[in-house]
Specification:
This protein is of the alpha/beta class. The protein is built from 6 helices and 6 strands, in the order βαβαβαβαβααβ. The chain has a domain of 148 residues: Rossmann fold, CATH 3.40.50.
Length: 217
């Protein structure tokens, strides 16, 4: 596949990834910058992609904000940011992409979270946003069928958040993972690839890639 790679502020990192991937296959990566919470910009991202490659086969909604919002201190701005990145943007990107995806029996893959199923202490807004994305995945799977599929991937302990988490906290989390170890971003990538390439008869499903963490939640 050719790739349209979106970034918000990480221009240097995006350019480095573009260079790495283009070294493997020349001119295969298009960079697109946007603030995804500005929904007026989203149709342009899809249109630029189609203009460059001539078609759209897959939309991966991976962008997200994550931080704690305890009820006693949460603000409306935090609500808008977390719902905007985790739920609003995926909906309106799907809306813009759907006509192109349905032309080619394409797919949408939403990166959800195991905490869409069970809440994480101190993160009510984030959990609500991801729960909404899980339901959106199922709703769009019905609406876009039979000419496009919509599925999700729910990561568990793959990367520790940028907010401080002690070794003790990490060990406590891993003690509740059936496989007793942390996952790797490659685990998510391989699941995405499976759904995109080999999961032709999978629709409306959310696959937990969590080492069995949800068995103990």
């Amino acid at each position: 596949m050719n790739l349209a790679l979106h970034y918000r502020t990480s221009a240097a990192e995006a350019a480095a990834l573009q260079e790495e991937l283009n070294a493997r296959r020349s001119a295969s990566v298009l960079l697109l910058q946007a603030e995804l919470r500005d929904t007026a910009l989203l149709p342009s991202l899809i249109e630029q992609t189609v203009a460059r490659w001539g078609r759209l086969d897959l939309l991966v909604n991976n962008a997200a904000c994550f931080y704690a919002t305890p009820l006693v201190s949460a603000t409306e701005a935090q609500w808008d940011e977390l719902l905007g990145s985790n739920l609003k943007a995926p909906f309106f990107l799907a809306q813009a992409a759907a006509p192109y995806l349905q032309r080619v029996n394409g797919a949408i893959i939403n990166v959800v979270d195991i905490y869409a199923q069970r809440p994480l202490d101190g993160h009510p807004i984030y959990c609500a946003a991801k729960a909404g994305l899980a339901m959106l995945t199922q709703a769009l799977a019905r609406e876009l069928a039979p000419r496009a599929r919509v599925n999700g991937v729910a990561p568990g302990a793959i990367l520790w958040p940028q907010t401080a988490s002690s070794e003790v906290q990490q060990a406590q989390t891993l003690s509740r993972v059936a496989l007793q170890r942390q996952g790797d971003p490659g685990d998510i990538a391989r699941t995405l690839l499976f759904l995109a390439r080999d999961g032709d008869y999978i629709n409306g499903q959310i696959i937990a890639v969590d080492g069995g963490r949800t068995l103990f939640m």
